[in-house]
Amino acid sequence: MSLKTLENSLEILKYFTRDRSSWGVRELAKEIGISHSIVYRILSTFEQYGFLIQDPISKRYKLGFRFLEYGQMVKEDMKLSHYIYPVMEALSNEVEESVFLTWLDKFDGVTVEIAESSQQIKYAVSLGTRTPLYVGASCKVIMAYLSKEQQLEIIHEGLQQFTNNTILDEEKLLSNLEEIKAKGWCYSVGEYSDAVFGLGIPLFNRQNEIIASLTIAGPEYRIEDIHLDNILKPLQDAGAKIQNYLYNFSGRYV
Fold this sequence. Notes:
- It is built from ten helices and nine strands.
- The protein is α+β, with helices and mostly antiparallel strands.
- It folds into two domains: 3-63, Orthogonal Bundle (Arc Repressor Mutant, subunit A), CATH 1.10.10.10; 69-248, 2-Layer Sandwich (Beta-Lactamase), CATH 3.30.450.40.
- The longest helix has 21 residues, at 228-248.
């Protein structure tokens, strides 16, 4: 396989997202700007090895179970369930809202662990959800600890409006990030999803580099009945326990 073919293959995989989970050969070729015959060969090869599945009727391709297998391997290697999930579950039971662990991956935040609220009405996302760093408490609290150069690179790549509360102004966003870093936590309402609040704190590796965040999130109407300090303190206490694990963990993700 040539380097160019490998680059094309990896580029094609990037187009299979949560918002666009399946593609036909010709529409994907048109979207990427690559010959449909090349795209067909690459997709067929991925299907042969279990990385993609083709619907027998629509002929569209979607991600295969091989990625689920690899995702589980990554999760087990990070030992999230064994060490971190019990802390998250205890926090979720205490504050009665969902708790999320978001991991930094380049310029996105990826949801890698969830402790769901037991309440009937709750905020829920799926494992593996990828979100831009400039929106929502779980991601902005990570972005606040990146370098100014990295922050500007993210902004200059373009900001997408998810709700009416998404901050799209560069100066306003940078000022907001400075405030978040000064406080050590981020609170947002309705920036990524309407009527949802988030309260997030940063998590660091042994070199004191930002790598993740821990966030409480739930319906906006419930936070109106709760004083912010009543959930911030438990969040910080849980974060300290997880932070201690991350400082002492010798795995390759920290």
